């Protein structure tokens, strides 16, 4: 189906001269800028983008796993416009504004499950700053309890936790770390990735095999000593490295081991938060409660940059108890950003939460996930496909790499799909999908057919 662009679009093309000054993030700049038809987007509405040269593109990835409510929903646009014209900015240190308190309260009461006691919210700017914040809160918490020897973090191979030095250090992607190896934070160790090609290929949802891999955490505790470990940080479902659903029982066992040794557990839910698995959080989906959750992206439907850390009340209380109530201006946590609690982000967040609720988007995602799963797995058997994985509205198709040129086949498929009107996410030779939660069965058919058609054309 062809949707109309939101307003009349004057079509333009972008040339390599136009693109000279910009250093594009996580992009092969030379290749992009030399392309005859660079992927340059001008407008968006609902499930679609429109390029500057007027082509309509169906969004199979919610931007970068983030526009969960679809593009430019009217009520969120209006809330942002109203807010920026009313209170453009408010210092987040020493001053507050009503919407930041309101949004924190509503996240606690409406997004998070009350029994979890995740009832404090620290606002950041993005996923990377949420991860740094959660790591710093973890260290500060142990210091506050007189347990300051706990300085280590345990991450995981194939984990992505953004690009700050903290997130890079606990992350497990060589390309992201290589040039900065000398500056990784000390004391970090990594669990093995749970993904196992032979055992996991073509599984749907949580693989049955691999829950026992959580015992590796026990080995790391024995190796380093529990009294040196501050926290374990994991994506419940690693997304950027190719959608790797956790083996059944794995997360629960990690929780048990952390509990046994007073180690904090951080779930990085920058992708999985806000309905991606058909629930408010992956924590709720898997019924495993961490001590801290990092999020961003769906927090404001990505329409204004923002992130947040949810943490358990006892962590907040431990920090509050470090200072006396004698009227002196003691700061309990020396941390924050100029753009923490940004009024426009808070307004966007409140309107986003309303929109998720009013449109019943988390349940909708849960209801359409089986159809998405069938569509994804229909790609099995097509040329070069070596695996298909999915959970909720996240899915991945993994391709056999071109000999000697990893990532090339994945990149070519992404380019071909875009030329054919569908945006997919390429990571190495894996094509990931994470459509907005408003996706219809017809949209899923178009996305899957486009991938299928172009898979057959690949060398
Ligand atoms: N953590 C996870 C799990 C992510 O997927 C991402 C981004 O995709 C980040 C952290 C970093 O977020 P940002 O790019 O907003 O800094």
From TrEMBL:
Gene Ontology MF, one: transaminase activity
Keyword Magnesium: no
Bias-annotated ranges (Low complexity): 1-16
Pfam family membership, one: Aminotran_3
Domain of life of the native organism: Eukaryota
Keyword Mitochondrion applies: no
Keywords: Aminotransferase, Pyridoxal phosphate, Transferase
PROSITE patterns with a match to the protein in the record: AA_TRANSFER_CLASS_3
SUPFAM superfamilies attached to this UniProt entry: PLP-dependent transferases
Protein name according to UniProt: Uncharacterized protein
The family this protein is said to belong to: Belongs to the class-III pyridoxal-phosphate-dependent aminotransferase family.
InterPro entries: Aminotrans_3, Aminotrans_3_PPA_site, PyrdxlP-dep_Trfase, PyrdxlP-dep_Trfase_major, PyrdxlP-dep_Trfase_small
CDD domains, alphabetized: OAT_like (cd00610)
Coiled-coil stretches: none
């Amino acid at each position: 189906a062809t949707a109309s662009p939101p307003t009349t679009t004057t079509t333009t093309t972008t040339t390599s001269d136009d693109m000279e000054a910009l250093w594009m993030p996580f992009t092969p700049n030379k290749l992009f800028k030399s392309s005859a038809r660079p992927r340059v987007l001008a407008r968006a509405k609902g499930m679609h983008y429109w390029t500057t040269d007027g082509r309509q593109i169906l969004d199979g990835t919610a931007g970068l796993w983030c526009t969960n409510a679809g593009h430019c929903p009217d009520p969120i646009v209006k809330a942002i416009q109203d807010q920026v014209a009313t209170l453009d900015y408010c210092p987040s240190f020493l001053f507050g504004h009503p919407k930041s308190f309101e949004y924190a309260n509503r996240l606690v009461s409406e997004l998070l499950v009350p029994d979890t006691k995740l009832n404090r919210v620290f606002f950041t700017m993005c996923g990377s700053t949420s991860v740094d914040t959660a790591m710093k809160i973890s260290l500060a918490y142990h210091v506050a309890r007189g347990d300051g020897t706990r300085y280590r973090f345990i991450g995981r191979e194939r984990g992505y936790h953004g690009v700050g030095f903290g997130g890079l250090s606990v992350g497990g992607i060589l390309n992201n770390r290589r040039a900065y190896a000398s500056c990784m934070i000390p004391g970090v160790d990594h669990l093995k990735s749970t993904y196992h090609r032979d055992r996991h290929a073509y599984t749907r949802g949580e693989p049955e095999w691999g829950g026992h891999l959580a015992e590796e955490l026990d080995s790391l505790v024995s190796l380093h000593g529990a009294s040196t470990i501050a926290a374990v940080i994991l994506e419940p479902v690693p997304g950027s490295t190719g959608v790797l659903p956790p083996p059944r029982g794995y997360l629960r066992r990690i929780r048990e081991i952390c509990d046994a040794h007073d180690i904090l557990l951080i779930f990085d839910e920058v992708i999985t938060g806000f309905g991606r698995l058909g629930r408010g959080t992956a924590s709720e989906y898997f019924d495993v409660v961490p001590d801290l959750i990092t999020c961003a992206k769906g927090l404001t439907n990505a329409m204004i940059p923002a992130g947040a850390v949810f943490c358990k009340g006892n962590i907040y209380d431990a920090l509050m108890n470090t200072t006396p109530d004698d009227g002196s201006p003691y700061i309990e946590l020396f941390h924050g950003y100029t753009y923490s609690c940004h009024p426009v982000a808070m307004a966007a967040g409140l309107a986003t939460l309303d929109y998720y609720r009013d449109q019943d988007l988390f349940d909708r995602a849960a209801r359409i996930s089986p159809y998405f799963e069938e569509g994804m797995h229909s790609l099995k058997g097509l040329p070069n496909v070596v695996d298909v994985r999915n959970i909720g509205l996240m899915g991945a198709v993994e391709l056999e790499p071109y000999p000697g040129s990893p990532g090339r086949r994945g990149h070519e498929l992404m380019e071909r799909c875009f030329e054919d009107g569908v945006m997919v996410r390429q990571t190495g030779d894996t094509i990931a999908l994470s459509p907005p939660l408003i996706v219809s069965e017809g949209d899923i058919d178009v996305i899957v057919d486009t991938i299928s058609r172009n898979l057959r054309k690949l060398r």
